[in-house]
Amino acid sequence: MKMENETTDRPMLEAVNLSKRYDDGVLALDGVSFEVKPGEIFVMLGGNGAGKTTALNIFLNFIDPTEGEAKINGIMTHFDPLKAKELVAFVSENVMLYENFTAMQNLDFFASIGGKNVYGDKDYRDALLRVGLLEESHHKKLKNFSKGMRQKCGLAIAIVKDAPAILLDEPTSGLDPQAGHEFIKLLDSLRGEGRAILMSTHDIFRAREIADTIAILNRGKIIMQKKASEIAGRDLEDLYLQYMAGHNSEVESPAIGGV
Amino acid sequence: MFSILIIKELRAIIYSPKFTVTFAVCAVLMLLSVYIGINEYNRSVIQYRTAQELAEQRMTETTAWPNLINKAQREPNPLQIFAGGLNYDIGRWSLINREDSIKLQHTHYSDNPIYAVFRIIDFSFIVQFILTLFAILFTFDAVNGEREKGTLQLVFSNPVSRAKYLLAKCAGSWLGLVIPISIPVLLSLLLVVLFKVPLDGGDWIKIISFLGLSLFLFSFFIVLGVFISTLIRRSNISFLTSLVIWVVLVLIIPRAGVLAAGQIVYVPRVAEIEGRRNAFAKDKWAQFEAKMENTWIERSAESGGGCSSASDEKLWQWMKEDDAARKKVEIEIEDYYAKLKEDLRRRKAVRERSAAAISRISPASAYQLAAMSLTDTDVSLKTRYEDSMNSYRTLFNDYIDNKAEDAGPTGQIMIKVSSEDGFDMSSFDSDQSLDLSGLPRFRHPDRSFSESFYPAIIDFGILGIYTILAFIGAFFRFLKYDIE
After folding, report:
1. What is the percent of chain B with per-residue pLDDT over 90, rounded to a whole number?
2. Which of A35, A62, A102, B370 could bond to A57 as cystine, CB 3.0-4.6 Å?
3. Facing residues of A196 across strands?
4. Predicted pLDDT of residue B425
5. Secondary structure of chain A: what % helix, strand, coil (to 5)?
6. A62–B483: do the CB atoms touch at under 8 Å?
7. Residue B386 and residue B101: Cα distance in Å, rounded?
8. Residue B482 distance to chain A (closest CA, Å)
9. Does B156 contact A110 at a Cβ distance shorter than 8 Å?
């Protein structure tokens, strides 16, 4: 399904000088700005505590930013969260669904609360088949699903919700290579439909495979943001380590200088 | 959206294994308790009728009005099937005659002491102890459990407002437990109908109110569980907290309230009252004897050669004066004793009210008090019967007095002492049985629905307020809840 504003240049997801300081004083995000247009995959790379999940949580209005704005199709998420959330689907690192519900029942519930009441069993079945979940698993309870199957089910929910923006938090973490590859292929097809995809990961290989734009985050700041075409032919792992080393030495000893 | 969230909650509850266990336990316990309650009631009815027939037979065998003794029986109450209350703790009958004051004797527990140890499980017990525990066990992780599982994040990545979610959580949990539990409740009512328990319209309204009250208590514990799950982030800690709160509310406060009231309001023991009465009587009689001694000394002096030299007329007058003085002392002692008993009764009433007020801090106590009031097995049951029996005793004694006067000296004993015949005692007993057709019969103190419901209004209000407060607490806590 093609998104309406696929061809426009208006960003679907936009972070404007986004900062978040928690109550304990930790600065998790420090003036982060980026945008993701329809039909684009934006990957946030970074280690633990880099601020990737915090950025996603602000987009989902799980937390409010201390400064700056997160917008979905121009709607500020902390100003009108319900309207903003109609436009976004979320797949977490460990997709946790209702264990005692079948895949179909989970899809039905999440599609319904996503505001799409017009969907029926056929749509759920199609979505599950599309993510590679065979028919016999559709009526199985989620407690019998492997992690890979759960992640696929999470993506099927995002597909059924038919949201123009998809946020993914470490979606391929813990998946076997085959499942990871299939997952990335699915993301590629969703990009092809014009969906704006914002993904956080520390899997450099997958980031390289799928990203249109890659941003490296460290200690709440974007220390590098480049189009995939700009770093074509370069070893992303080397680049990542270089930027990280440069930024860390800059933070620890500003006189030495960084990247 | 709201209905979708509610349906999800319903599904989640019905699919959970703990629901199957809960449902089975509740169904078995409820049906069993009502079945046993019906049997117990039927046995009480048989016992009541037999005792009535025996009392009637004894009265018909009596041949003199002054010797007539009746036994007023407490009629079994069919509502005891649902809430036994104090029904089993209060005596079943009292003797009605001039000599004995009203005293309800032979409780169910005095006949069957084992029941006093392991008290009868009735419907109100199941609601108060088992359903409330289940309500807490179903909701202690309503919010924090979803956060731990990760489903809360996925839910709130969708356009779902927190207010709607929380309301749906409460409503869904409520429906998810109430709808299935209503099946054994309806079956229990069906049992009551099938076993032809005599219930009139007023009784049915009381039963419906009692079930509504049970729903109030159940709702409070559901909302309380949700509130705890928003207050505490980890479900294992909220489980322990919920259990502790349940123990305090259901087991400790109701008993502590009674103990606290006992400490605050002093109520003398019956032995103390008797002791004070005896001391007062002893003092009065000592004064009386001293006064008599003086009087007789004065009389001897007045008559010249001692009392024996006084004329018969004078002696007769003195005897009348002495008798009047003696009666005056007796009346004074009786008045004092009546005042002591009235004071005891007033203090007991104050202590009962204080105990009820303190224990009403616990919604379980409020429920128990209201349930007993609605089923007419509350703490006033004893005084209701005692008052009613006292009124009947007055009627009965007046009737006997009138009849005895009409019948002449029947039943009295005549003692003759003469120097010629010596000592002779004869009675005026007749062999004919008495005509008891006009004898007033004891009427049970029936309570209308409004009389039973009126004392329970405060408890309905308390339960309603507690539920609203718990929901408000959960609501404001959840608005700021960190769903990560």
Report:
1. 29
2. A62
3. A165
4. 63
5. 40, 25, 35
6. yes
7. 10
8. 7
9. no
From residue A135, give the alpha-carbon distance in Å to each of A149, B45, B391.
Answer: 13, 64, 81
Main-chain dihedrals φ then ψ at residue B34, nearest 5 degrees:
-70, -40
B93-96/B422-427 β-pairing: unpaired
C-alpha distances (whole Å) from B273 to each of B268, B277, B283, B335 are 7, 6, 15, 13
Residue of A nearest to B159 (CA): A82
Q: Does the distance separating the beta carbons of B12 and A98 come in below 8 Å? A: yes
Q: Count of alpha carbons within 13 Å of A43, Cβ hemisphere only?
A: 27
Going from N- to C-terminal start, the domains of chain B cover: 2-266+363-395+438-479
- Phi, psi dihedrals of residue A76, rounded to the nearest 5°: -70, 125
**Closest Cβ opposite residue B150 in set A83, A85, A92:** A92
End-to-end CA distance of chain A: 41
Which helix (H) or strand (E) segment holds residue A185: the answer is helix A177-192
* Predicted pLDDT of residue B471: 93
Residue A192: how many other CB atoms lie within 10 Å = 11
CA distance B174 to B185: 16
- Between B149, B155, B161, which is nearest A82 by CB? B161
A chain contacts of residue B480, beta-carbon cutoff 8 Å: none
Distance CA B34, CA B123 (A): 7
pLDDT at A257 > cutoff 50: no
B interface toward A at CB cutoff 8 Å? 1, 4-5, 8, 11-12, 15-16, 149-151, 153-161, 482-484
CA–CA dist B339, B358 (Å, integer) = 28
Among candidates A166, A127, A167, A173, which has minimal Cα distance to A151? A173
Give exposure, A60-86, as e/b (b: 16+ Cβ within 10 Å). bbbbebeebbbbbbebbbeeebeebbb
pLDDT band at B461 (very low <50, low <70, confident <90, very high): very high
Distance (Å, rounded) from C-alpha B228 to C-alpha B289? 73
Scan for tokens 């009108």, then name that residue: A80
Eight-state DSSP code of residue B57? H
Among candidates B151, B159, B484 on the partner chain, residue whose Cβ is nearest the Cβ of A97: B151
Strand partners of residue A214: A43, A226
- Using an 8 Å CB-CB cutoff, list chain B residues near A61: 156
Separation CA B464–CA B461 (nearest Å): 5
Which member of B11, B150, B158 has the closest CB to residue A114?
B158
The single-letter DSSP state of residue A118 is T
Cross-chain residue pair B11–A63, CB shorter than 8 Å: no
Residue carrying the six token digits 């607490």? B473
Q: For A94, which residue in chain B has the nearest alpha carbon?
A: B150
Q: What is the pLDDT of residue B212?
A: 93
Return the CATH fold of A1-87+194-253: Rossmann fold (3.40.50)
The Cα diameter of chain B in Å comes to 118
Q: Tell me, what's the pLDDT at B307?
A: 63
* pTM listed for this prediction: 0.81
Please tell me the distance from the alpha carbon of residue B238 to that of residue B423, in angstroms, as a whole number.
88
**Distance (Å, rounded) from C-alpha B142 to C-alpha B169?**
7
Torsion of CA B415, B419, B420, B421, to 10 degrees: 20
